[in-house]
Amino acid sequence: MLEINKTLVIVRGGGDIATGSIQKLYRAGFKVLVLETEKPSAIRREVAFCEAIYEKEMTIEGVTAKLCNSIEDIEKVWNEKKIPILIDSTGESIYKLKPQVVIDGILAKKNYGTNREMASITIGLGPGFTAGEDVDVVIETMRGHNLGKLIFEGKPMANTGIPGIIKGIGKERVIYSPCAGVVKNICKIGDMVEKNQVIATVDGVDVLATISGVLRGLIREGYEVPEKFKMADIDPREEEQANCFTISDKARAIGGAVLEAVLYLKNEKNI
């Protein structure tokens, strides 16, 4: 008996990619807890549960995450049929709560301390993990034929540093801060923008749209960024405007893979 509704799954990270996995696990009936940093820097904020850190609650496609001030609040949030999210960048609460499953969905391209001692089942998303060493399974996050593949031994594809190609456009889709400073947004997520249009400023320095299209992601107003920090992305497909507010195809594919990995390992380990 899998007893899904009694299985505690802790997900480190609540950005847009992790959100696809969090939603899948929650809807499948798992008890999900999300751990985040004090100041998340997601740019696809409309589809990232980590926004609950700022807004107290964040609802995406009918599923709500709610900020907890302490471990003691978690059970209450589950009883409200919501997903608790806790500020814990180091994963300290993992050792207190002893989950059956830990998923690292930080997508930092390196491992921030996730290891197989944390839980019976450990899963890492993307580069930075080695299956069979620091986690049980790694999920391939690179767009293409192997997206969502479960890797039981070795590493996923290395980070290329180049965003996935959309309509023939890759690195130009992503916008980085021109300098260090505080962000003031001029446009908002979902806006149609033209190349060289001012979409935001950093300490008064203009941030320009690199291409024309839909402003799919934009870092939070007031965020203090270092120089060359990822702060926005544009989708060149105008028809994708409505999809700024729904979980992406990539996040859904990875979410399905995470759910598969959890169920497969629960069966394999008979837990």
Q: Summed up, what is this model?
A:
With 271 residues, this protein is of the alpha/beta class. 18% of the residues lie in helices and 27% in strands. The model has no long low-confidence stretch (mean pLDDT 95).
List keywords for this structure.
4-stranded antiparallel β-sheet, Rossmann fold, about 270 residues, OB fold (Dihydrolipoamide Acetyltransferase, E2P), 5 helices, alpha/beta, 2 domains, single chain, globular, 9-stranded mixed β-sheet
Helix content: 10-25%
Reported for the largest beta sheet, the result is: 9 strands, mixed
If classified by CATH, what would the architecture of the largest domain be?
3-Layer(aba) Sandwich
User: Globular, elongated, flat, extended or rod-shaped: what is the shape?
Assistant: globular
Number of helices: 5
What is the strand tally?
Answer: 17
User: Average pLDDT value?
Assistant: 95
Supply the CATH class of the largest domain: Alpha Beta
What multimeric state do the chains show? single chain
| End-to-end Cα distance | 8 Å
β-sheet strand percentage: 25-35%
Please describe the topology of this protein.
Elements: E1 8-12, H1 16-28, E2 31-36, H2 52-55, E3 57-60, E4 63-68, H3 74-79, E5 83-87, H4 92-97, E6 101-104, E7 121-125, E8 137-139, E9 150-151, E10 174-176, E11 181-185, E12 192-193, E13 198-202, E14 205-208, E15 213-218, E16 224-225, E17 230-235, H5 249-269
Parallel strand pairs: 1-2, 1-6, 2-5, 4-5, 6-7, 7-8
Antiparallel strand pairs: 3-4, 8-9, 10-17, 11-13, 11-16, 12-15, 13-14, 15-17
